[in-house]
Amino acid sequence: MRIISFDDLYIDYYMKKGELIGLCGGKTNANILVNLSPYFKTALFGQCGNDAKGDLAIKSLAIHDVDVTHIKRVDGETKAFFLDENNFSKECPYCHREVGYAKKMLDVEDILSHIEKDDVIVVDNLKTSTLKILSEVNNKSFLDLGYLGSLLYASLDEIVEMISNRFEIISMNKRVYDCLKHKFAIDSTDLYDLLNPKILIITKGEKGCDIIANGEFIKKEIENPAKVVDPNGAGDAFFAEFIRTYLESDTVNEMMISKAYMRASVASSLVVGVVGARSTHNPLFEIETYEECICKKFSIREKY
Q1: Furthest-apart CA pair in the chain: how many Å?
Q2: Tell me, what's the pLDDT at 298?
Q3: pLDDT in tens, 86-143
Q4: What is d(CA 42, CA 56) in angstroms, rounded to the nearest whole number?
Q5: Residue 227 phi/psi, 5° resolution?
Protein backbone atom coordinates (compact mmCIF):
# COMPACT_ATOMS: atom_id res chain seq x y z
CA MET A 1 0.00 0.00 0.00
CA ARG A 2 1.13 3.52 -0.83
CA ILE A 3 -0.39 6.84 0.13
CA ILE A 4 -0.39 9.01 -2.96
CA SER A 5 -1.44 12.43 -4.15
CA PHE A 6 -1.21 14.47 -7.34
CA ASP A 7 -1.12 18.11 -8.48
CA ASP A 8 1.28 20.93 -9.30
CA LEU A 9 4.21 21.30 -6.89
CA TYR A 10 4.68 24.57 -5.00
CA ILE A 11 7.37 26.10 -2.85
CA ASP A 12 6.97 28.47 0.09
CA TYR A 13 9.23 31.40 0.95
CA TYR A 14 9.14 32.19 4.67
CA MET A 15 9.67 35.89 5.38
CA LYS A 16 9.89 37.98 8.53
CA LYS A 17 9.81 41.77 8.42
CA GLY A 18 10.85 41.71 4.79
CA GLU A 19 13.78 39.33 5.29
CA LEU A 20 13.93 35.79 3.94
CA ILE A 21 14.15 33.17 6.71
CA GLY A 22 14.19 30.14 4.45
CA LEU A 23 12.18 28.18 1.94
CA CYS A 24 10.77 24.72 1.42
CA GLY A 25 8.33 22.75 -0.67
CA GLY A 26 4.72 23.57 0.14
CA LYS A 27 1.06 22.73 -0.52
CA THR A 28 -1.31 20.84 1.74
CA ASN A 29 -1.30 17.47 -0.01
CA ALA A 30 2.52 17.41 -0.20
CA ASN A 31 2.80 18.36 3.47
CA ILE A 32 0.41 15.56 4.42
CA LEU A 33 2.54 13.04 2.51
CA VAL A 34 5.68 14.26 4.30
CA ASN A 35 3.96 13.76 7.66
CA LEU A 36 2.88 10.25 6.67
CA SER A 37 6.19 9.20 5.11
CA PRO A 38 7.70 7.82 8.36
CA TYR A 39 4.84 5.29 8.54
CA PHE A 40 3.87 4.44 4.95
CA LYS A 41 5.23 4.38 1.42
CA THR A 42 4.26 7.68 -0.20
CA ALA A 43 4.32 9.10 -3.72
CA LEU A 44 3.39 12.35 -5.44
CA PHE A 45 2.46 12.56 -9.12
CA GLY A 46 2.17 15.78 -11.10
CA GLN A 47 4.38 18.51 -12.43
CA CYS A 48 6.67 21.38 -11.57
CA GLY A 49 8.60 23.97 -13.52
CA ASN A 50 11.97 23.27 -15.05
CA ASP A 51 13.66 25.78 -12.76
CA ALA A 52 15.49 26.12 -9.44
CA LYS A 53 12.18 26.28 -7.56
CA GLY A 54 11.12 23.02 -9.15
CA ASP A 55 14.43 21.43 -8.16
CA LEU A 56 13.80 22.46 -4.58
CA ALA A 57 10.15 21.32 -4.60
CA ILE A 58 11.26 17.84 -5.67
CA LYS A 59 14.25 17.74 -3.31
CA SER A 60 12.14 18.74 -0.33
CA LEU A 61 9.95 15.68 -0.93
CA ALA A 62 12.73 13.25 -1.83
CA ILE A 63 14.60 13.85 1.43
CA HIS A 64 11.52 12.49 3.21
CA ASP A 65 11.45 9.38 1.00
CA VAL A 66 8.37 10.54 -0.88
CA ASP A 67 8.56 8.90 -4.33
CA VAL A 68 9.04 11.67 -6.90
CA THR A 69 9.78 9.38 -9.86
CA HIS A 70 6.72 10.41 -11.82
CA ILE A 71 6.86 14.18 -11.38
CA LYS A 72 7.08 15.84 -14.79
CA ARG A 73 9.19 18.91 -15.46
CA VAL A 74 7.44 21.49 -17.64
CA ASP A 75 8.67 24.70 -19.23
CA GLY A 76 7.89 27.64 -16.99
CA GLU A 77 8.14 28.61 -13.35
CA THR A 78 7.18 26.56 -10.36
CA LYS A 79 4.50 28.29 -8.33
CA ALA A 80 5.58 30.03 -5.12
CA PHE A 81 3.93 31.63 -2.13
CA PHE A 82 5.56 34.24 0.10
CA LEU A 83 4.54 33.80 3.73
CA ASP A 84 5.03 36.60 6.23
CA GLU A 85 3.68 35.78 9.68
CA ASN A 86 -0.05 35.17 9.14
CA ASN A 87 -0.19 36.55 5.59
CA PHE A 88 0.68 35.03 2.25
CA SER A 89 1.08 36.41 -1.24
CA LYS A 90 1.75 35.13 -4.75
CA GLU A 91 3.79 38.28 -5.38
CA CYS A 92 7.51 38.41 -4.68
CA PRO A 93 8.12 41.14 -2.08
CA TYR A 94 11.38 42.14 -3.80
CA CYS A 95 10.69 42.28 -7.54
CA HIS A 96 6.89 42.45 -7.17
CA ARG A 97 6.03 39.91 -9.83
CA GLU A 98 3.60 37.04 -9.42
CA VAL A 99 5.43 33.73 -9.52
CA GLY A 100 3.63 30.75 -10.98
CA TYR A 101 2.87 28.40 -13.81
CA ALA A 102 1.51 29.33 -17.16
CA LYS A 103 -1.85 27.59 -17.52
CA LYS A 104 -0.81 24.00 -18.15
CA MET A 105 -3.27 21.26 -17.33
CA LEU A 106 -2.20 18.18 -15.42
CA ASP A 107 -1.81 15.08 -17.57
CA VAL A 108 -4.73 13.14 -16.13
CA GLU A 109 -4.14 10.01 -18.19
CA ASP A 110 -0.49 9.88 -17.16
CA ILE A 111 -1.40 10.18 -13.48
CA LEU A 112 -4.06 7.49 -13.82
CA SER A 113 -1.48 5.16 -15.35
CA HIS A 114 0.59 5.31 -12.13
CA ILE A 115 -2.23 4.66 -9.64
CA GLU A 116 -2.24 1.11 -8.29
CA LYS A 117 -5.29 -0.72 -6.95
CA ASP A 118 -4.19 -0.68 -3.32
CA ASP A 119 -3.06 2.97 -3.30
CA VAL A 120 -4.72 5.34 -0.84
CA ILE A 121 -5.36 8.81 -2.27
CA VAL A 122 -5.13 12.15 -0.45
CA VAL A 123 -6.44 15.30 -2.15
CA ASP A 124 -6.71 18.91 -1.03
CA ASN A 125 -9.00 20.32 -3.73
CA LEU A 126 -11.91 19.47 -5.98
CA LYS A 127 -10.63 20.91 -9.23
CA THR A 128 -11.77 19.46 -12.55
CA SER A 129 -8.61 17.38 -12.92
CA THR A 130 -8.92 16.02 -9.36
CA LEU A 131 -12.56 15.02 -9.86
CA LYS A 132 -11.74 13.42 -13.21
CA ILE A 133 -9.03 11.24 -11.64
CA LEU A 134 -11.22 10.27 -8.68
CA SER A 135 -14.08 9.33 -11.02
CA GLU A 136 -11.86 6.84 -12.83
CA VAL A 137 -10.66 4.88 -9.78
CA ASN A 138 -12.24 3.25 -6.74
CA ASN A 139 -9.31 3.74 -4.37
CA LYS A 140 -9.85 4.66 -0.75
CA SER A 141 -9.55 8.48 -0.58
CA PHE A 142 -9.27 11.33 1.93
CA LEU A 143 -10.13 15.00 1.42
CA ASP A 144 -8.65 18.03 3.19
CA LEU A 145 -10.69 21.01 2.02
CA GLY A 146 -9.05 24.30 2.97
CA TYR A 147 -10.74 26.48 0.38
CA LEU A 148 -13.83 26.24 -1.80
CA GLY A 149 -12.51 27.62 -5.09
CA SER A 150 -15.11 27.06 -7.82
CA LEU A 151 -17.33 25.24 -5.29
CA LEU A 152 -18.27 28.68 -4.02
CA TYR A 153 -20.59 28.94 -7.05
CA ALA A 154 -21.88 25.35 -7.00
CA SER A 155 -25.29 24.31 -5.74
CA LEU A 156 -25.66 21.99 -2.78
CA ASP A 157 -26.82 19.21 -5.10
CA GLU A 158 -23.70 19.65 -7.24
CA ILE A 159 -21.42 19.53 -4.20
CA VAL A 160 -23.14 16.42 -2.90
CA GLU A 161 -22.79 14.76 -6.30
CA MET A 162 -19.05 15.52 -6.32
CA ILE A 163 -18.27 14.40 -2.79
CA SER A 164 -20.94 12.10 -1.41
CA ASN A 165 -19.80 8.54 -0.57
CA ARG A 166 -16.33 9.17 -2.03
CA PHE A 167 -14.10 9.90 0.97
CA GLU A 168 -13.23 7.97 4.11
CA ILE A 169 -12.49 11.18 6.02
CA ILE A 170 -13.32 14.75 5.05
CA SER A 171 -11.60 17.56 6.92
CA MET A 172 -12.52 21.18 6.36
CA ASN A 173 -11.53 24.32 8.18
CA LYS A 174 -14.01 26.61 9.89
CA ARG A 175 -13.87 29.12 7.05
CA VAL A 176 -15.06 26.54 4.52
CA TYR A 177 -17.66 25.13 6.91
CA ASP A 178 -19.06 28.58 7.76
CA CYS A 179 -19.39 29.39 4.07
CA LEU A 180 -21.33 26.20 3.38
CA LYS A 181 -23.39 26.61 6.54
CA HIS A 182 -24.53 30.13 5.71
CA LYS A 183 -24.97 29.57 1.98
CA PHE A 184 -27.12 26.46 2.31
CA ALA A 185 -28.54 26.87 5.87
CA ILE A 186 -27.14 23.52 7.01
CA ASP A 187 -25.12 22.43 10.01
CA SER A 188 -22.27 19.95 10.46
CA THR A 189 -24.63 17.03 11.05
CA ASP A 190 -26.45 17.82 7.82
CA LEU A 191 -23.12 17.88 5.99
CA TYR A 192 -22.14 14.54 7.48
CA ASP A 193 -25.43 12.97 6.39
CA LEU A 194 -25.25 14.45 2.89
CA LEU A 195 -21.57 13.73 2.17
CA ASN A 196 -21.49 10.42 4.05
CA PRO A 197 -17.81 10.08 4.98
CA LYS A 198 -16.75 7.71 7.73
CA ILE A 199 -15.50 10.77 9.65
CA LEU A 200 -16.15 14.49 9.20
CA ILE A 201 -13.73 16.90 10.89
CA ILE A 202 -14.22 20.66 11.16
CA THR A 203 -11.00 22.25 12.40
CA LYS A 204 -11.05 25.48 14.42
CA GLY A 205 -7.38 26.19 15.02
CA GLU A 206 -6.62 26.99 18.64
CA LYS A 207 -10.26 26.32 19.57
CA GLY A 208 -10.04 22.63 18.72
CA CYS A 209 -12.33 20.82 16.31
CA ASP A 210 -15.72 19.18 15.83
CA ILE A 211 -15.79 15.52 14.79
CA ILE A 212 -18.73 13.49 13.57
CA ALA A 213 -18.31 9.73 13.33
CA ASN A 214 -20.89 6.94 13.38
CA GLY A 215 -23.53 9.66 13.50
CA GLU A 216 -22.24 11.00 16.81
CA PHE A 217 -21.07 14.59 17.33
CA ILE A 218 -17.84 15.00 19.31
CA LYS A 219 -16.57 18.42 20.35
CA LYS A 220 -12.84 18.64 21.10
CA GLU A 221 -11.57 21.76 22.85
CA ILE A 222 -7.93 22.72 23.46
CA GLU A 223 -7.54 23.78 27.08
CA ASN A 224 -3.88 24.86 26.91
CA PRO A 225 -3.07 25.78 23.32
CA ALA A 226 0.59 25.79 22.29
CA LYS A 227 2.30 29.10 21.66
CA VAL A 228 1.99 29.79 17.95
CA VAL A 229 5.20 30.83 16.20
CA ASP A 230 3.94 29.93 12.73
CA PRO A 231 0.54 28.30 11.99
CA ASN A 232 1.49 27.04 8.52
CA GLY A 233 1.29 23.28 8.20
CA ALA A 234 -0.45 22.62 11.52
CA GLY A 235 -3.67 21.50 9.88
CA ASP A 236 -1.75 19.25 7.49
CA ALA A 237 0.03 17.51 10.37
CA PHE A 238 -3.29 17.22 12.22
CA PHE A 239 -5.08 15.55 9.32
CA ALA A 240 -2.13 13.25 8.58
CA GLU A 241 -2.44 11.73 12.05
CA PHE A 242 -6.14 11.04 11.53
CA ILE A 243 -5.34 9.30 8.24
CA ARG A 244 -2.54 7.32 9.89
CA THR A 245 -4.69 6.16 12.80
CA TYR A 246 -7.66 5.35 10.59
CA LEU A 247 -5.52 3.18 8.30
CA GLU A 248 -3.98 1.39 11.29
CA SER A 249 -7.39 0.65 12.84
CA ASP A 250 -9.94 -2.01 12.04
CA THR A 251 -12.95 0.15 12.78
CA VAL A 252 -14.10 3.68 13.57
CA ASN A 253 -14.95 3.84 17.26
CA GLU A 254 -14.41 6.06 20.29
CA MET A 255 -10.96 4.59 20.96
CA MET A 256 -9.81 5.21 17.38
CA ILE A 257 -11.08 8.80 17.43
CA SER A 258 -9.42 9.52 20.80
CA LYS A 259 -6.12 8.05 19.66
CA ALA A 260 -6.20 10.00 16.39
CA TYR A 261 -7.03 13.25 18.16
CA MET A 262 -4.26 12.76 20.71
CA ARG A 263 -1.69 12.12 17.99
CA ALA A 264 -3.02 14.98 15.85
CA SER A 265 -2.92 17.46 18.73
CA VAL A 266 0.68 16.61 19.56
CA ALA A 267 1.79 16.80 15.93
CA SER A 268 0.10 20.14 15.26
CA SER A 269 1.36 21.69 18.52
CA LEU A 270 4.93 20.83 17.49
CA VAL A 271 4.44 22.35 14.04
CA VAL A 272 3.14 25.70 15.31
CA GLY A 273 6.21 26.03 17.55
CA VAL A 274 8.61 26.40 14.61
CA VAL A 275 8.72 28.35 11.36
CA GLY A 276 7.91 26.16 8.38
CA ALA A 277 5.26 23.56 7.66
CA ARG A 278 7.88 20.78 7.53
CA SER A 279 10.43 22.11 9.99
CA THR A 280 9.64 19.46 12.59
CA HIS A 281 11.08 16.99 10.07
CA ASN A 282 13.88 19.06 8.52
CA PRO A 283 14.94 22.72 8.78
CA LEU A 284 14.13 25.24 6.09
CA PHE A 285 16.45 25.46 3.11
CA GLU A 286 18.63 28.56 2.82
CA ILE A 287 19.59 30.37 -0.37
CA GLU A 288 23.35 30.55 -0.84
CA THR A 289 23.48 32.56 -4.08
CA TYR A 290 20.91 33.93 -6.50
CA GLU A 291 20.70 35.80 -9.80
CA GLU A 292 18.47 38.88 -10.26
CA CYS A 293 16.09 37.95 -7.43
CA ILE A 294 15.46 35.23 -4.82
CA CYS A 295 12.39 34.16 -6.80
CA LYS A 296 14.40 33.35 -9.93
CA LYS A 297 17.60 31.33 -10.26
CA PHE A 298 19.27 30.39 -6.98
CA SER A 299 21.44 27.77 -5.33
CA ILE A 300 20.79 26.17 -1.96
CA ARG A 301 23.22 25.88 0.92
CA GLU A 302 23.45 22.11 1.41
CA LYS A 303 22.70 20.76 4.90
CA TYR A 304 21.56 17.29 4.03
Answers
A1: 56
A2: 93
A3: 678 889 999 998 887 666 678 999 999 999 999 999 999 999 999 999 999 999 999 9
A4: 18
A5: -65, 130
DSSP collapsed to 3 states, 4-20? EEEEECEEEEEEECCEE
Torsion sign (Cα): 173, 145, 195, 253 = negative
**What is residue 76's DSSP assignment?**
S
Which residues 6+ apart lie within 8 Å of 84 measured at CB? 15, 16, 17, 18, 93
Characterize the bridge pairing of strands 209-213 and 41-49.
unpaired
Distance CA 54, CA 71 (A): 10
Taking the C-alpha atoms of residue 51 and residue 117, their distance in angstroms, rounded to an integer, is 33
pTM for this model (two decimals):
0.95
Q: Which amino acid is at 158?
A: E
pLDDT, tens digit, for every residue of 4-24?
999 999 999 999 888 999 999
The residue type at 269: S
